């Protein structure tokens, strides 16, 4: 396997920030992966899929691993008519190609997660979600390599400790996901969960899986910037959770504050609403700004320096804190 020294990472992050990796490798098999882990036991490690959820503020002084492990197996029990479909998909498959593959075959469960850029292996890391769905709801198992020992470890759904944009993998940075086992269904019934999507489907009596995928794609294309045209990493901040009292206090001045009660008694509110009402809708400072159609997305109009993005991030966080007393936490990973 080749090792690339002092490699420019601009093409490895969708924000197009520039930084050099001390060493970079692209293992195509699990044994190549083990090889590179044992060749560089003492180097700091960073895994990159398609780089759609991370950017750089400085060079990476360690080993960047870009897995290139592909393949998909149907591991369902024999019967064709079986309601339950189990697919084991290797980490480097393109996420949306995989969703399209399932939708074409009538395998239900992933359609709301259409058009999210990235790889299958990254999906469990932050438990990707959109339009009322989260990937944790269709994951049976995650198979990973422990980067310290080189051993293969399997995680059941519960062992992944999934949370809102979170998992054991994101918290520990210890495992490289090599495959994900999905549990999908043949029966599909559209359950209205998300206003924008319901509106898009209102003229279809019984939407099919394909109708839902097409609707999600239309809504996303209208609202979100294409990272290949205007560099970004999707939602920059997580939606914050606040106490009921805190939400009520904000609502005296902002009665339209979105407020979704959670099981633990907290209220989930909208980071986009806070950013918008802090005066940052479509605001641009130098090369960095929020996307006019969706203030939660920070876009890069031409900087190669991730520190510019961080400065803009601090400014947004500071203003939101001053006005709403809420600390916005980044969803995007900063290296
Ligand atoms: C325009 C746009 C829209 C987006 N919309 C959404 C959305 O609707 N919902 C959503 O949840 N996200 C969204 N995102 C964020 C992003 O698409 C997801 O987080 C996606 O899963 C990133 O995949 P990736 O392969 O690019 O991961 P990367 O950005 O390469 O990596 C993300 C993190 O996962 C780690 N990682 C990657 N691969 C592995 C692996 N095999 N094993 C262990 N760790 C790994 C990395 O080290 C990093 O910490 C959006 C991004 C963009 C640019």
What is the CATH architecture descriptor of the largest domain? 2-Layer Sandwich
Kindly estimate the percentage of residues that lie in beta strands according to DSSP: 25-35%
State the end-to-end CA separation: 26 Å
| Multimer state | single chain
CATH-defined fold name of the largest domain: Uridine Diphospho-n-acetylenolpyruvylglucosamine Reductase, domain 3
- Class computed from helices, strands and strand pairing: alpha+beta
- Helices, by number, come to 8
Which class of the largest domain in CATH terms?
Alpha Beta
Number of domains: 3
Ligand inventory: flavin-adenine dinucleotide
Give the beta-strand count. 20
Order of helices and strands: EEHEEEEEHEEEEHEHHEEHEEHEEEHE
- Label the overall shape: globular
Mean pLDDT: 96
Helix content: 25-40%
Strand order of the largest sheet: 6-7-12-10-11
Largest sheet: 5 strands, antiparallel
What is the CA-atom radius of gyration, in angstroms?
Answer: 21 Å
Which ranges are low-confidence, i.e. pLDDT below 50, for 5 or more consecutive residues? none
């Amino acid at each position: 396997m080749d090792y690339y020294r002092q490699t420019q990472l601009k093409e490895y992050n969708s924000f197009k920030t520039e930084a050099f990796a001390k060493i970079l490798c692209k293992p195509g098999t699990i044994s190549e992966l083990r090889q590179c882990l044992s060749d560089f036991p003492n180097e700091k490690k960073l895994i990159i899929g398609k780089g759609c959820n991370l950017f750089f503020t400085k060079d990476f002084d360690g080993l960047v691993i870009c897995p290139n492990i592909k393949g998909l197996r149907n591991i369902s029990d024999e019967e064709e008519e079986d309601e339950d479909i189990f697919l084991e998909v290797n980490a480097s498959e393109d996420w949306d190609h995989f969703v399209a593959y399932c939708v074409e075959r009538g395998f239900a469960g992933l359609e709301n997660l259409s058009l999210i850029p990235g790889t299958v292996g990254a999906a469990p890391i932050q438990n990707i979600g959109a339009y009322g769905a989260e990937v944790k709801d269709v994951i049976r198992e995650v198979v990973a390599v422990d980067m310290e020992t080189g051993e293969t470890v399997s995680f059941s759904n519960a062992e992944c400790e999934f949370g809102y944009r979170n998992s054991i993998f994101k918290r520990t940075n210890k495992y490289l996901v090599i495959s994900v086992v999905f549990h999908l269904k043949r029966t599909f019934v559209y359950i209205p969960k998300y206003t924008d999507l319901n509106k898009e489907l209102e003229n279809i009596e019984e939407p099919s899986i394909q109708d839902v995928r097409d609707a999600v794609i239309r809504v996303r294309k209208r609202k979100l910037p294409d990272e290949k045209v205007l560099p970004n990493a999707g939602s920059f901040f997580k939606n914050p959770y606040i106490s009921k009292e805190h939400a009520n206090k904000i609502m005296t001045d902002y009665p339209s504050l979105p407020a979704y009660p959670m099981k633990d008694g907290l209220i989930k509110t909208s980071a986009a609403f806070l950013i918008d009402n802090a005066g940052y809708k479509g605001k641009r400072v130098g090369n960095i700004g929020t996307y006019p159609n969706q203030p939660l997305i920070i876009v890069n109009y031409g900087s190669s320096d991730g520190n510019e993005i961080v400065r803009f991030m601090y400014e947004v966080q500071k203003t939101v804190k001053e006005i709403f007393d809420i600390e916005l936490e980044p969803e995007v990973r900063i290296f």
